[in-house]
Amino acid sequence: MDILSQHYSVMNPNLRMSMCKSLILMRNKNLISPLKLLELFFKLLKAKDKLLRKTLYNHIVTDIKNVNQKSKNNKINTVLQNYMFSMLKDSSPIAAKISMDIMVELYRKNIWNDTKTVNVIVTGCYSKITKVMVTALKFFLGTDAPEEVKADSDSESEDDNEKAKKLIIAGQVSKKTGKKKRKMEKALSMLRKAKKKQKPVSFNFSAIHLINDPQGFAEKLFKQLESSTERFEVKLMMINLIGRLVGIHELILLNFYPFLQRFLQPHQREVTKLLMTSAQATHDLVPPDAIEPILRTIANNFVSEKNSTEVMAVGLNAIREICARNSLAISAELLQDLVEYKTTKSKTVMMAARSLIQLYRNFDSTLLRKKDRGKPQEPSMIGEEVGSKQFGAKTALTFVPGADLLDNET
């Protein structure tokens, strides 16, 4: 182990790999303590040998998983987490990136799913190494699903599905025989199995809830974003994460809204994601004065006759989503102007305008014109009284909505 530790950078790759495999074998037989070996392997991640790094990565993840299989080994976990924290600050970008990958993988496997791991990954968002920063951002955004692991099995299943589809098409045009009928049934069963295997993508946002100081994290990340020279895709991830932090933790980050406002143009790349972030970053505790400029920008740039109906509908829907989170953000004048699109010929624009009317019928119908207010609603129907609401006010319910419909005997 000392030879590897001191001379790994100049050793023959085959010899180095053989020694590492021997150490892994000894560790599997419990002849070496995990701490010593894992610390050595973390050091070897700096080696310029892709195959070696991949082997070490797989062993580190598997070994930590085995160590924590029966119960959490806090002693080993604490030492390794501290070591990984120092590795993230390492001068070697490869070692830092793999260390981040290991932590993300262990969190995903529910091995290191504690607060400390999450907050170590938080520091990766400030990294000067772009790959480390992107990995950390993807982790918090829930877009770090392991695609490489499933690549082989997915490609095989896709080939089988294509063959099955070809058999079905061939069976429709060719002569029907018993053999072809059996092939057809087999192909159909394969397609049914493939459909059952397809599961919807699930996103786990629990990591965002484990951040110790979300306000400080959002402020630091926004400061980094303002001075960032990274490509637009990385900036977009940072914007998305800040918006999500603000929305989930109900943070106050007033400088973020004017920054977003600059990007809200129909021709902007990924403008729908930016509009989504604008809605995500809105909540009841944000002062309406901070959000109103965003609404006016969207109204001026999107909801205009010079734009296509699709753009107008997107703009109206974005305004509705923002207003649903902060009903005081829009002025009566702007709302009444937008509501006028309810009579337009385009169905998508008309429906978007009507959904905005329906929203304010529930929230504050006094902002609408008298003809748009509809029938007065009873408080019991929506759980709170309809009317103007003060900024920061919370509605305390004196009853459970719908409880009167329950049978008294139950």
From TrEMBL:
Task: Note one Pfam family from the annotation.
Answer: SDA1_HEAT
Q: Which UniProt keywords apply?
A: Nucleus, Protein transport, Ribosome biogenesis, Transport
What does the record list as GO biological process? Answer: protein transport; ribosomal large subunit biogenesis; ribosomal large subunit export from nucleus
Indicate the segments forming the SDA1 N-terminal domain, all copies: 1-345
Report the InterPro entries cross-referenced here.
ARM-type_fold, Sda1, SDA1_N
Compartmental location: Nucleus, Nucleolus
Signal peptide residue numbers: none
Q: What is its main location?
A: nucleus
| Cellular component GO terms, alphabetical | nucleolus
Question: What role does it play?
Answer: Required for 60S pre-ribosomal subunits export to the cytoplasm.
Q: Which PANTHER family match?
A: HSDA/SDA1-RELATED, PROTEIN SDA1 HOMOLOG
Q: Which family does the entry's similarity section mention?
A: Belongs to the SDA1 family.
Protein name (record) = Protein SDA1
Q: Which organism is it from?
A: Clytia hemisphaerica
Its lineage reads: Eukaryota, Metazoa, Cnidaria, Hydrozoa, Hydroidolina
